[in-house]
Design brief:
This protein is mainly alpha-helical. It contains seven helices and three strands; from the N terminus they run H-E-H-H-E-E-H-H-H-H. Strands 1-3-2 form a three-stranded antiparallel sheet. The longest helix has 17 residues. It is elongated and about 50 Å long.
Amino acid sequence: MNISDEIEQFILSVLGGGDEITLSRGDLAQYFSVAPSQINYVLATRFSLSKGYIVRSKRGGGGITLVRISQSGDPVANQLKELEGMERLPENRAADMAERLRGQNAVTDREKALILAALTEKALAGAEDSGRLRREIYKQILITLMQK
């Protein structure tokens, strides 16, 4: 077993059956006698959104929070995974995705309207690449919805 596998297994054992943990990147690096960049690598490759995890860094050395996305057919989690395979998000596709969330009762009519307003071409006017920006904004909206 290589060091990345060991770090992954350790993190999974700490997470256990829970959905969220907070860890110190520095403490992990010290425990495994590796550079913090090795911890970053494991988090980026083994705990990515497409693998069902959200990794949030806390500023000021506060560590990282690892959140396991529900695998129970949660429409928000499914859309997060769907976004992983996309480089850009066209406005019409964003509207379809928001409508699906509403249809699955994951958001209210008001929340859907706010999402759509934030993702319009008019709202993103002047952006160098509105499709990329729209994708990132929608991703952050979905992550926020996962945390409620």
